[in-house]
Write a structure and sequence with these properties.
The complex is a heterodimer.
Chain A lengths: L1 E12 L2 E13 L4 E5 L6 H8 L7 E6 L2 E2 L5 H11 E4 L11 H7 L8 H14 L15 H13 L5 E5 L7 H18 L2 E5 L3 H4 L4 E6 L2 E3 L10
Chain B lengths: L1 H11 L1 H40 L5 E5 L24 E9 L6 E2 L1 H7 L4 E18 L27 E10 L14 E4 L11 E5 H6 L7 E4 L2 E9 L8 E4 H7 L5 E2 L1 E6 L5 H11 L3 E5 H6 L1 E2 L1 H38 L1 H9 L4 H37 L3 E5 L31 E5 L7 H27 L3 H6 L3
Parallel strand pairs in B: 5-10, 7-9
Antiparallel strand pairs in B: 1-12, 1-13, 2-4, 3-11, 4-5, 4-12, 6-9, 7-10, 8-9, 14-15, 15-16
Helix pairs in contact in B: 1-10, 2-8, 2-10, 2-11, 8-11, 10-11
Classes of the chains: A alpha/beta, B alpha+beta.
Chain lengths: 230, 479
């Protein structure tokens, strides 16, 4: 469970501070599928990075399972990331020199020292996303949808409590988008995890159990909708 | 995962990895070649000095001769009463080495008693002039034809007289470990026995033996005495052409009980300077020369090659190495910069910074070691090529024991038969030196150390760059 309280984040650009998140307060319950929507540059990805322990807020607290990520050392954050969070990126971010199976294994390297155990788990997860037959293929030998499925397998292989997906269908065509979202939703239901998806796509967001809109770094309402009705 | 990732990454950017390895290879190869050349030249210098003065010799003691004092001819030069015109003759004339004054052999004992001296052995170095020809048919004069300067004079009226010179060392057979035969490796036969103090036996230098078709068991006539060749010395840059027992040389040189050089071995390496000053104090007129003095007096192309290897070669190697190290570091940093998103992703997945740094360091080290291997191959090839294509070097040893002017016999013609050019102690004694590639374990260890250092430097800089990456910033970067 997440508890974000008065989270602000600013970036220095040139001589001025650009606010990305402003006094944001948000609670995310276990088992929730949350879609974060909003225009480009309004803080969606920044919020995802706060939730994933990839960045720290300028002020406020990001409490996950009773511990404030903002107060953790780099070492502790790395530990939490390696055990509790799985990431899915818009551009897949697979290592081009490693096969599909080896890419999935990279997520197990920090927590699973046994190489044969890693290989077995990676194969199980590739089977779960329907890519067992492509285990030895390199990313460039796979389609966009297949690459994203490998990335999803990598995010799920260590059974994280939270899966954070940043525009997971942003680089895919419509058919592939449906396929990937079906997969994510199925895995979320089967495994009872928190799934947080940042997306522009309302069709993707429509599958979520809850949606939040970010505007100028604050939780608000979509354009044309009164925030009081959200 | 570490090795798989490392090998695949290097394979992916194999062109860049090859450029880095080649750059390091050239730098390390140059170091190997220069080190090998330097070592070869050093060994050649040592070999020249050792062959001239013996491996165990730390000091030599000589006494400068007065100008014009060259000693007297031992063997008569006039025609015998029975000489008939047209009859062939051979004559030998022995001269003490010019510039060297003979002194009593009792001084060897004086030197041996000096503090710091371990062992001392006296020797008599002679220059032999060998005449062959035919008694004049025209009569008159001394019956000999005149000889032209240069050794093999001839005229239309008179038959030719051949004049050749060679060097002869009388050695103390009871102390062979010190002196010119101390380092001798024999190609055949044996060295002197201690009981051969006055035996008519000789050890002959390899080149001289080849030139005069001598071998173990053959005979050599010097001043009417027949010497049996008992050994052939293998070193082509030895100090003399012929070695005989000291007493025989003293007899030929009319220098009974005298020597003109004493070879000294110090009691220990640290006692050399003490022994030198002790001898100088005991024998104020003597010239005491140490190995380092000798080394500094070696000139000629060998010396130039030494300077070239030590000065230009060293600096060239350093410059190329720095350039190669800089290239490796820059390309490693560049590779890390291109992989910001990749490393950011790994950090997001929970890879610790040290694991990412280790991966970068591993890749740099692999490139460094590849460069080291390439460097060894290039270096060995370079060392062999340099020795193969380098013109024959010469070492000139000048000024040893001073210069006493011409010999007592009014000087002598230029050497004709001796391959070493002139007698010991003569300015400009020149020997040909053939270099062989010197590739020791140390040189290969140096190559590996440089390769590891290059990998560490490039890897550290690349690793530092990778360590500073924050995952959020890395993922924000759009390729």
């Amino acid at each position: 469970m997440y508890e974000l309280t008065n989270v602000s984040k600013s970036y220095r650009k040139g001589g001025t501070m650009i606010p990305a998140l402003q006094d944001l307060t948000l609670r995310i319950d276990d088992g929730e599928f949350l879609a974060v929507q909003g225009p480009t540059g309004h803080g969606k990805t920044t919020l995802l990075q706060m939730l994933g322990g990839l960045d720290r807020p300028t002020s406020g607290s990001v409490v996950f399972d009773g511990r404030d990520l903002a107060e953790m050392s780099e070492h502790e954050l790395t530990d939490v990331r390696s055990r509790s969070f799985g990431f899915v990126f818009q551009t897949f971010n697979l290592i081009p020199t490693l096969t599909a199976q080896e890419n999935v294994e990279t997520a197990l390297v920090p927590v699973h020292p046994d190489a044969s155990g890693r290989r077995r788990r990676a194969m199980e997860e590739l089977e779960a996303v329907g890519l067992a037959d492509r285990a030895t293929h390199f990313p460039l030998e796979l389609s966009g949808g297949q690459q994203q499925r490998v990335a999803i397998a990598r995010a799920l292989v260590r059974e994280p409590e939270v899966v954070l997906a940043d525009e997971p269908t942003g680089n895919l065509d419509e058919a592939m988008r449906e396929e990937i979202m079906e997969l994510l939703v199925r895995l979320w239901r089967d495994r009872d995890r928190i799934l947080i998806v940042v997306t522009h796509d309302s069709a993707v967001a429509a599958r979520a159990s809850r949606r939040v809109w970010l505007r100028e770094g604050r939780v608000g309402a979509p354009e044309g909708v009164d925030s009081a009705s959200v | 995962m570490f090795w798989t990732y490392l090998v695949r990454e290097l394979r992916r950017r194999r062109r860049q990895a090859f450029v880095v390895a080649l750059g390091l290879g050239v730098g390390i190869g140059l170091v190997v070649t220069v080190s090998s050349l330097s070592s070869s030249v050093g060994k050649a210098q040592t070999s020249v000095l050792h062959s001239l003065y013996g491996v165990g010799t730390d000091l030599t003691v000589t006494q400068q001769g007065r100008p014009g004092s060259g000693g007297s001819a031992r063997f008569g030069f006039g025609p015998p009463p029975s000489a008939r015109p047209g009859q062939r003759f051979t004559r030998d004339r022995a001269l003490p080495s010019p510039g060297r004054q003979a002194f009593s052999a009792s001084r060897v004992a004086t030197i041996a008693g000096v503090d710091g001296v371990g062992q001392a052995a006296g020797a008599l170095e002679l220059t032999m002039i060998h005449f062959t020809g035919t008694f004049s048919t025209s009569g008159g004069g001394n019956g000999f034809p005149s000889s032209s300067a240069g050794g093999s004079g001839s005229s239309s009226q008179q038959p030719p007289v051949n004049v050749s010179t060679y060097t002869l060392d009388g050695v103390d057979v009871s102390a062979l470990s010190v002196g010119p035969l101390g380092s001798a490796s024999l190609e055949g036969g044996r060295s002197f026995r201690t009981d051969e103090t006055d035996a008519a036996v000789a050890v002959v230098d390899q080149s001289y033996a080849k030139q005069h078709k001598l071998h173990v068991g053959s005979t050599l006539t010097i001043g009417g005495t027949t010497f049996h060749v008992i050994g052939i010395e293998a070193d082509s840059s030895s100090s003399a052409d012929v070695y005989v027992p000291l007493a025989r040389a003293q007899s030929m040189g009319d220098a009974f009980g005298q020597v003109n050089i004493v070879y000294v071995k110090a009691a220990s390496a640290s006692a050399v300077s003490r022994a030198q000053s002790g001898i100088e104090a005991a024998l104020p007129k003597a010239t005491v020369t140490s190995s380092s003095d000798l080394a500094s007096q070696v000139t000629g192309s060998l010396s130039s090659a030494s300077s070239l290897a030590n000065d230009l070669g060293k600096w060239l190697s350093i410059v190329v190495l720095i350039a190669a190290f800089a290239l490796a570091s820059l390309l490693t940093v560049s590779a890390v910069s291109r992989r910001v998103r990749e490393f950011g992703t790994l950090k997001a997945l929970g890879w610790r910074t040290r694991r990412v740094v280790r991966q970068v360091m591993g890749e740099a080290m692999a490139q460094g070691l590849l460069g080291g291997l390439l460097g060894m191959v290039l270096g060995v090839a370079g060392a062999v090529a340099v020795v193969q294509f380098m013109p024959t070097l010469t070492a000139t040893l000048g000024g040893l024991g001073g210069f006493g002017g011409g010999g007592g016999g009014g000087g002598f013609p230029a050497a004709q038969g001796g391959q070493t050019g002139g007698p010991p102690g003569f300015a400009g004694r020149t020997v040909a030196v053939h270099l062989t590639p010197s590739l020791s374990l140390e040189i290969f260890v140096l190559a590996i150390v440089l390769a590891v250092a290059a990998g560490l430097i490039a890897g550290s800089i690349g690793g530092w760059r990778a360590a500073r990456l924050r995952p959020a910033e890395a993922l924000r970067r759009v390729d």
